Amino acid sequence: MERSTCRLEILEVFRSLEQRRGREIFSLTEILAEMKSRGTSYPESTIRTHVCSHMCVDAPDNAAVTYPDLERVERGRYRRRLSSAATPTEVAFTVQGLPPKKDGANSMWCKDSEVERLVRLRLAAARAFGRHAPFKRELQVALVIHIGPENHSRIGSLENMVGGVLGGLQAAHPSTPWKDHSGWGRSDVVAVLPDRAIGLVDAGDVLAIDARKVVGDTEAPWYEVRLERAR
Q: Rounded to two decimals, what is the model's pTM?
């Protein structure tokens, strides 16, 4: 009989654990224990390398990801990732507060004034996408910003807000020193850290943007984002 690959054994372990335990997220310790209980012939080091590197989309750039099967939810905990083919044709969500602003002078990922806005955006997007992969083909974007009772210069330009939202849904540039900001060290943002794309892989794939500000319909600002595959 042909020997099963380590990757296929790990995927079968995830499916089995999901069915028996009624959840999607498992620690590396649980995965190793299940593999051992099934009598795997692969050494622990090989299994670790597959889970943490070759099969994980969140692995470091130098990890040579081979199969985007898993995603790291938090340190040492993983779940199976749905394929990009399962991404719906449209994802929409709302966010409280104003959008992040990208002005080009300094990285918004490290700015005190923008980090909390980025966190709110990415958490809302992560909830809307669930286990689906971010968009990576031609799409169109709609952004409606309900800015509050009046529009003034401190709110920022529509152009900068569009840039902030599109940039905030992508991964930060690898050279961005976002780890230096304490806002990214919180336990509740582990799943949306700037090292991964949340809503779209590349803003260059956006073919059309419909963006506007709405004034006077609310006291507290909020905004709506809709991502849709181009038809």
A: 0.69
